[in-house]
Design brief:
The protein has 107 residues and is mainly beta. 0% of the residues lie in helices and 55% in strands. Strands 1, 2, 3, 4, 5 and 6 form a 6-stranded antiparallel beta sheet that branches.
Length: 107
């Protein structure tokens, strides 16, 4: 077993209003917290890995695969590799646990 310290905490964003803080990296899995301030613009590009998002705090909207959903604490959703997606209309600072399989950037 390995304890993952500080998972789900809200990190201070950079000038773009976003941060990503990786908590764990193994060849087949990586986990981090992605944070976006209210009003921030999510500039992420599609990833080569599958992703599971778990919203731990905040409110906004998310678009992926031609579908838009409202997200808030407790929202959990899957994004397949290479699918265009982004958070938007962020009304409360978002903190999101992100699970990549395999590890982000490994493909």
């Amino acid at each position: 077993m390995e304890t993952i310290a500080a998972a789900g905490r809200y990190a201070e964003p950079d000038a773009s209003g976003a941060t990503y803080d990786e908590h764990l990296r193994r060849p087949d899995l990586s986990i981090g917290t992605y944070c976006l301030r209210a009003g921030a613009v999510d500039t992420q590009d599609p990833h080569a890995e599958d992703e599971v998002y778990v919203v731990t705090s905040g409110r906004g909207r998310f678009t992926g695969g031609g579908e838009t959903i409202d997200v808030a604490a407790g929202s959990v959703f899957f994004v397949p590799a290479r699918e265009e997606h982004r958070f938007h209309d962020i009304t409360e600072d978002l903190a999101v646990l992100v699970f990549f399989g395999p590890a982000e950037g490994s493909r």
